[in-house]
UniProtKB/TrEMBL annotation:
Protein name per its UniProtKB record: DUF4011 domain-containing protein
Lineage: Bacteria, Pseudomonadati, Bacteroidota, Chitinophagia, Chitinophagales
Alphabetized InterPro entries for the sequence: DNA2/NAM7_AAA_11, DUF4011, P-loop_NTPase, WG_beta_rep
Coiled-coil regions listed in the entry: none
Start and end residues of each DNA2/NAM7 helicase helicase domain: 602-679
One of the record's GO molecular function terms: helicase activity
Length: 1132
């Protein structure tokens, strides 16, 4: 080791003298010396005091409490006679004397082995000697098993160790239980162990020792001492009684599990001469040899694990109405004035008796009995040997039940329960008084310290007060005992525990099988620490906010199924489809006066009103702002008009208020009784009824019928036109269909005249022939190339084509080529003479040049000074007004000039006074002033020039238009039915290089809007899903909302955007960033005019799957406070 360095010593195994260690009979003090040497020189030394304990000393729970397992010594030779006697007794009780541990896989066989062993040790008549009060914590010296057998003396711990040693010798897995000042013993009835050797959770034992679970058995070890007479079953009950006071429980040790931790049985020591010698009997017991018979164990239940339980529609409706908060006493039972706890009696016996029709008198606790567990929350069971509990069990046979409270508190509690139950039954028609049989002790989280208690079974009961002397009695309402489905739903939703085997509830001879139900629940919660079933009984009122609705569905299931709509909802289909009147048949079905429509309604709304009048059931669906509340108002008004009563129920208060205000606006407020909830004040209801009674019944005016008849006649005349317009002709189309087709081709020319005779003989077959011919012509034209006037062969219509004609055409073309070459030479001379730049001439330029030459030739004599001016620009500026005046005069008098300047749409001259050069007119087929100083020009395609005649947008687009803000949409049509478009400004600059596309006929019209508010519409057609996806960009060309949505609605106040994708809505902020993805069913924002914009006001109300919540502009769901409790923000 270097100077100043460090050196780590490995674990040093001290060489101890075993003979000295196991020869110690008393505690002694020794020292441990640490010495460091360097080159045989001692450089450092230190001594530490240590305590050496006696061979048989146990340290308790302070240091490795599981070391108590070392005192379980199954290999002692002194155990052989005990095991042989055990086998002998077992042979008398059963057909076999074999001590075959768990090989039979029968818990009852294991119990009989334990009982036989109990009988043998009991016959030893070992004398009991006391134990130190704090031995479980500080430990003690322990008499070893051989010493107990040799001296015939042992305390509770030593007798437990003796019994545990014999159990392990048989092959069973012992359990040692330590409580304050006491110890007792038990064993597994199945071949199993706990995950840990030491546990301090008593529920791990109580759940496994419960009757019907049959996984473990505990006995009172001191019952085997001399002077004790309990049978084996009595010893079991004595051990169970120790769990009445859980505060005394400390821990238990799984001996078999501790063996896996390396804790072996202590070696046996023998004194030979003056020295102690250790004898390690690896297996001193060479064989396992083969007095009242104990009671048989109840049959264990085996549950199949279920991941999910499928519910019917009705059960699903019921569960959605449940209250899963801790305010509900069905999940969090608290001792209060609305509940009474009975001193425990066997719950299965009580349920069977009450199901059989027995009545029970309720008595207070005896005056001479003071309940020490009064303030402990839910009372725990007391020692079953307590004389008071024996009294209670005896009184059960006499049809009497006792509670923990005094006589005065009992009278007050029962009176309150009696009155509240009667009031609930009278006002709501639902019973809320139940006998809660069994409680589930559960914890919200693994770290929760406060237990919660939830009723398991609820038996409907009623309180009868027969006389003051006899007091109150309870009896069953002759209704089925039900499982606490609120608890089941809580376990399923919050803890993933799905209980099987409880639908329907298992039954026995009288009512339900309480024990089996408890054990099913115990099996389900077996892995939940500290959870257990408490076999307690309470009387109380159990309800929650939607209890009445739940009770109606639960209690009237058969009646509900009689309604065809409800039956269809439950079964998933209607037996008979509902008959609705089509829109076109409404006029024939209903005349004026048959339906009352105080608010205007369109055809679809009228269809809904007529369906409601006919008694049909339906869903009225539509996005915000489409008139649903108006339609509902008309439905209610029309029902009142027909003398019917209407119950209008809505999930949201806002919906009720809107319809109520509309009814009030049309004068129907006195006929509306506003009962929004059970919180409505009685005075307000009475005031509404008074207003209704003050209404004087009036007869309809005589003129009403005559006016209705007049309107019906006028409607019949109009309907005749409608019928003719929509009547199908022989060719399969109506006039209305043809109009719709015709308007789709606004640029088509009327070049195909049809005679009346041709139209009269046109049928479907001839129509299809025409269509086929047109398609063939279109294909042939495509093969021939461009068939427009720009085609060099346009205008040639030879009747036939031959080789002579071909040769003649070649000669003519040769002459034309020669003439053209001469023309080119002349053009070069002219351009050189006029000092024009050299270059090739296009057809348009040649036409323009030809017109220029014609114009020059037609000019009168021009003064030579015109051509000799030195300042041409000044001269042009002075001459320009004269030219304009001359052009205006020319346009007025020269009809031939008008062929160059005309409107594309209206056929009249348009110049707006701009000085367009006359020479520009001849280039274009058409020209029209549009806006922002731009002329729309046609040169096969559309483009724009400015007022100086300069080209701004090259004519290469099929459709163009300019917005009020001066932005141009340029569109190109494609043969497959879609078009592409771009945006440019008035200078001809494209806002973006991106080209957007849109497919017509998909039910979208967004690109026709061109501009929504301050944004330009952009789109993209996705052929894979056959959808147009929409986005928006600003007027600088920056994309704000990418084209990923089927609808984009900006907020007019700049608060962002509502977006839709596949019928689901979402929210974006003003920069187009995501606030909420498109998962919402609805967003409640007011529409503005036009309906391409919305008025989004944050926080905004959103809906998804029937749940509602408010969202801020940053996407945060707002919590709110109800009755002083903060909710997470979602409500129904």
């Amino acid at each position: 080791m270097l100077p100043g360095g460090a050196f780590q010593l490995e674990v040093i195994r001290l060489k101890l003298k075993p003979v000295f260690i196991y020869s110690l009979t008393e505690r002694m003090t020794a020292s441990l010396k640490l010495s460091i040497r360097a080159d045989e020189e001692e450089v450092y030394t230190e001594e530490y005091d240590i305590d050496l304990l006696a061979y048989d000393q146990w340290l308790g729970k302070s240091i490795l409490p599981e070391m108590l397992s070392a005192f379980v010594m199954p290999n002692l030779p002194e155990l052989v006679p005990i095991l042989k006697s055990t086998a002998s007794i077992l042979g008398k009780w059963t057909d076999s004397s074999a001590l075959n541990d768990y090989q039979s896989q029968n818990p009852d066989r294991v119990k009989k082995q334990m009982a036989a062993l109990y009988a043998v040790i009991k016959e030893k008549k070992n004398t009991y000697c006391s134990v130190p009060a704090s031995f479980g914590g500080a430990g003690q010296r322990v008499r070893l098993v051989d010493t107990v057998l040799a001296t015939g003396m042992g305390n509770c711990l030593e007798m437990s160790l003796l019994y545990a040693s014999c159990l392990e010798a048989i092959g069973l897995h012992p359990i040692l239980v330590l409580i304050k000042g006491h110890a007792f013993v038990g064993a597994w009835l199945v071949d199993d162990t706990f995950p840990d050797a030491v546990n301090d959770d008593p529920s791990l034992l109580t759940k496994r020792t419960a009757s019907g679970i049959n996984e473990m058995l505990l006995i009172e070890a001191t019952a085997m001492n001399e002077g004790q007479s309990p049978s084996f079953d009595d010893a079991i009950q004595l051990a169970v009684n120790h769990f009445a006071d859980l505060s005394a429980f400390e821990y238990f040790i799984d001996v078999h599990r501790s063996r896996f931790s390396g804790i072996r049985p202590m070696p046996l020591r023998r004194k030979i001469g003056e020295e102690w010698q250790m004898i390690d009997h690896e297996n001193s017991v060479d064989e396992k040899p083969e007095i009242s018979n104990p009671a048989a164990l109840e049959q264990s239940i085996k549950l199949n694990h279920v991941k999910e339980i499928n519910f019917g529609k009705q059960q699903l409706w019921e569960r959605k109405l449940l209250d899963l908060s801790l305010r509900n006493n069905l999940l969090n039972l608290r001792i209060s004035k609305t509940s009474l706890q009975f001193i425990p009696v066997p719950p299965n016996e009580l349920e069977d008796a009450m199901a059989g029709g027995d009545e029970f008198q309720i008595l207070a606790r005896p005056r001479d009995w003071d309940n020490p567990l009064r303030n402990a929350g839910v009372y725990q069971s007391l020692n079953s040997q307590d004389p008071m509990l024996q009294l209670v069990r005896q009184e059960l046979k006499q049809k009497r039940l006792r509670v923990y409270v005094s006589e005065e508190d009992l009278y007050a509690g029962l009176t309150g329960l009696y009155r509240s139950a009667r009031q609930a039954l009278e006002e709501n028609g639902a019973n809320t008084l139940y006998l809660a049989i069994g409680l589930l002790r559960w914890y919200e989280t693994p770290s929760s310290e406060r237990p919660r208690f939830a009723p398991i079974l609820l038996m409907p009961v009623e309180i009868i007060r027969k006389s003051v002397k006899k007091g109150f009695i309870i009896r069953s309402r002759e209704e089925d005992t039900v499982l606490n489905i609120t608890l089941l739903e809580k376990l399923r939703q919050d803890y993933g525990l799905a209980l099987s085997g409880l639908d329907p509830l298992p039954r026995d001879e009288n009512g339900v099988d309480v024990k089996l139900i408890f054990n099913i629940i115990r099996q389900t919660i077996m892995s939940m620490p500290r959870w257990d079933v408490e076999e307690q009984i309470f009387l109380g009122t159990f309800s929650f906010s939607k209890f009445i609705m739940w009770n109606d569905i639960h209690s009237n299931a058969d009646k509900l199924k009689e309604h065809p709509i409800v039956a269809g909802l439950i079964n998933g289909s209607l037996k008979e489809p509902l008959d609705y009147i089509r829109e076109e048949n409404l006029d024939h079905k209903y005349g004026y006066g048959d339906l009352l429509l105080p608010i205007n309604a369109d055809a679809t709304q009228l269809q809904a009103i007529s369906a409601a009048t006919a008694g049909n059931s339906f869903v009225l669906h539509g996005p915000p702002g489409t008139g649903k509340s108006q339609t509902i108002t008309n439905i209610i008004a029309n029902a009142l008009y027909r003398g019917k009563r209407v119950l209008f129920v809505a999930e949201k208060m806002a919906a009720l208020s809107v319809v109520q205000s509309r009814l009030a606006a049309i004068g129907l407020a006195p006929f509306c009784l506003e009962l929004h909830s059970n919180k409505a004040k009685k005075s307000e209801v009475l005031a509404q009824l008074q207003k209704t009674m003050e209404i004087v019944r009036k007869q309809a005016p005589d003129s009403f019928k005559s006016e209705a008849d007049r309107l019906n006649q006028l409607r019949e005349v109009l309907n005749e036109y409608v019928e003719v317009l929509h009547q199908k002709q022989a060719h399969g189309y109506s006039l209305y269909d043809l109009f719709n087709e015709y308007v789709q081709y606004p640029e088509a020319k009327d070049d195909i005249p049809l005679s009346a005779e041709e139209l009269s003989t046109l049928d479907r077959e001839k129509w299809h022939q025409w269509i086929d011919t047109a398609e063939e012509l279109q294909i042939a034209a495509g093969l021939c190339g461009d068939a427009s006037e720009r085609n060099p062969l346009y205008g040639l219509e030879p009747g036939e084509y031959s080789s002579q004609q071909k040769e003649k055409i070649r000669q003519e073309l040769g002459l034309f080529i020669g003439t053209r070459e001469k023309l080119n030479q002349i053009l070069q001379q002219v351009t050189h003479m006029l000092q024009w730049p050299d270059g090739s001439w296009t057809g348009g330029q040649l036409q323009k040049f030809s017109e220029l030459i014609d114009g020059i030739l037609q000019l009168p004599e021009i003064p030579e000074s015109f051509f000799q001016t030195e300042h041409l620009s000044d001269f042009e500026e002075a001459l320009l007004p004269l030219i304009n005046a001359g052009e205006q005069r020319l346009l007025r008098v020269d009809d031939s000039t008008k062929t160059y300047l005309y409107s594309l749409k209206k056929g009249h001259v348009v110049s707006k006074g701009y000085p367009i050069r006359k020479s520009d007119f001849g280039i274009y087929e058409g020209i029209e002033y549009e806006s922002h100083g731009l002329f729309k020009v046609l040169q096969s395609k559309y483009g724009y020039i400015n007022k100086q005649g300069r080209v701004v947008i090259t004519p290469s687009f099929d459709r163009t238009r300019i917005s009020k803000s001066g932005l141009i949409q340029l569109r190109k049509d494609h043969k497959d039915g879609h078009f592409t478009y771009q945006y440019a400004d008035t200078t001809g600059r494209f806002l973006s290089d991106a080209v957007y596309d849109f497919k017509e006929g998909m039910g979208d019209d967004y690109p026709y809007y061109f501009q929504i508010g301050q944004y330009l519409v952009i789109s993209h057609y996705d052929a894979s899903v056959q959808k147009n996806f929409i986005g928006l960009m600003d007027q600088t060309g920056k994309v704000i909302v990418k084209p990923n949505y089927t609808k984009v609605l900006p907020s007019k106040n700049g608060n962002g955007f509502m977006v839709e994708r596949f019928d689901r809505w979402g929210l974006l902020d003003e920069a187009g960033e995501l606030i909420l993805p498109t998962v919402l069913d609805n967003i409640y924002a007011a529409p503005s005019y036009p309906r391409t914009e919305m008025d989004i006001q944050y926080p905004v109300l959103c809906e998804i799957k029937g749940m509602y919540f408010y969202v801020t502009s940053s996407g945060v769901i707002l919590p709110f406070i109800i009755n002083g409790i903060e909710s997470h923000g979602i409500f129904w």
